[in-house]
Amino acid sequence: PFKELYTAFFILKLTFLVPLVSLRYSLRSARPHPEWSLGLCVIRVLARELFNYYTKTRSDGLAAVQEAHKKAIGRFSLAEVADASMYPTLLDYGTVKPVSVGGLWFSGPPRQETDLRYEKVILHFPGGAFVLAYGTEGTGKDVASAMTQHLKATRTFLAQYRVSTNQSTRFPAALQDLVTFYHHLLSLGLDPKNIILSGDSAAGNLVIALVRHLENLRSPRLPLPAGAMLWSPWVHVTAEAGNDYTRCRNSENDILTASLLQWGADSYLPENPTTDSVPFISPLHHPFKTSVPMFIHAGGSEAFFDSVKDFAQEMTEIQGNRIRFHATDLAWHNLPMSYKGLGMEYE
Length: 347
Known about the structure:
Number of domains: 2
Order of helices and strands: HHHEEEHEHEHEHHHEHEH
CATH class of the largest domain: Alpha Beta
CATH superfamily of the largest domain: Alpha/Beta hydrolase fold, catalytic domain
Structural class: alpha/beta
CATH architecture of the largest domain: 3-Layer(aba) Sandwich
Distance between the termini: 43 Å
Strand order of the largest sheet: 1-2-4-3-5-6-7-8
């Protein structure tokens, strides 16, 4: 009953909020950034309201992802659990165990007759503060379009890891899933030199953890990928996530909310984090040596900007690391998930 009542209140609120916000930001001088369009300003407010709705009602989006997987006949692929030796140090967390997980191919899965050695594949993981699932058709199309256009990718695989909903899906459940997905692509015959990892927001955090895991493991069965792209990665994850966010400059003008991040941290963090687990959970101030080239992006108008830039600098200072940090001045959090329709296609 609470969710139904709150949903009705939310819809009613939006009917009044949209015209009020439009009127407020009709003057450029009233906008968070004068360069932002009226549409950007309105959508920013609506995005924050939507995140507040998700947080209040604990709506995780899993049902929409599951429905998308059912409808994507021929493009859905199930990644089976790999051998236990692929998950060392990730199996010592009680009920948190690897499971089979699924994702969607764009524009389609590799065909049997295709010479996979020459396939350039983006393995993308969508963000969601560890608690929201975004592995849907719409998300995949937008990401795949950008990857095809700018990276000449042959295909993109949108991989939906487990979001944190109970004790068995806390850390390191999502990281276990990333290992499972990467192993799955390699099992198809894809050349690791043609696989690029990609993750936005919380999934950027997970991609960092996966690269760290692969570096520590150094297994011929899980060779290193060609590179990793991190889009607004959440690199500072603590039990005080909400307060951490509020203290960030730009937090008032970004699209995320402190309550969403606190929900994510409360749900994701293990009950008793160990010294060894902290770098995998919160990579800021825990740089590591890697031969995997990393592209790290942050929006100049997002609250995570300083922490992302600091992490990139820490990684750059390690000899041999190949790190490229890039900022888009007017962009808020998570450009790949928000560029379409906002006048940011060029960015």
